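Bench notes, afternoon.
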Amino acid sequence: MKKAVLILLAIVALIGWMIFWGYDYSKDAATKKGGDLYKTVIERGYIIVGVKTDIKPFGFINEKGENAGFDVDLAHYIAKELFHDPAKVKFVSVTDSERMYLLNLNKVDMIIATMTVTPKRQHFVDFSNAYYITGQALLVNSGSSIRSLGDLSNKDVGVIYGSTAEETIKFLLPTAHVMGYKTYDEAYRALKAGHVLGITSDDAILRNYSLKDSSVNLLPKRYSRDSYAIAFRRGEESNYIIEVVNNVISDMEHRGVFMQLKRKWNLD
């Protein structure tokens, strides 16, 4: 009798577990694997977009507690094209190190998060056409003796985990002591505290720190020419929505919208 009760309790627990996880995935998954993403998005009625929440002016939380920034505006333009309503967007916060992971877990439809196109990443995700051109730069404390990347040989330099800058500096300057940080604000605080002598990342991101804080300086040299693009899950499911998004990007270019956004976010 006791054994039968234990078996019954185990069955009930298993059913509960299956219902819980089934509900969780049905609510959280951006789309079922193998399904056409465009069709899924249209049927759902909104897009789920992974964005940064700690990088001005591309993706951050404003004083109203809302997502804001260049990348956020781009997401609203895409929603307007798909649903004739720019508000039809659900934003999910992502970091450099987790954004492709969340995309391939079907937690978001697309990533618009200062994501640089690289050959390595193209093995794992599909990209839209480029929407922003940037280059790797170096942020140092004002008055620092560091004048270029070469001056950081055998010295501590900050990067963001999962960023292209992490790979680039290891290639360009293998003697540097690379210190990884999860967020840009963490790296910025480390620079201010003297834990690193410089931060290397995209100039469009580092420029914001130099504009708001005269105690840090963005050096003029650029060490790469990189393109930001929107990332999608790799495969046929994304083909049509990428075509639609590329049309949106092309239309924004032709109408001068990207220039307007650059002026709006002090990127020109």
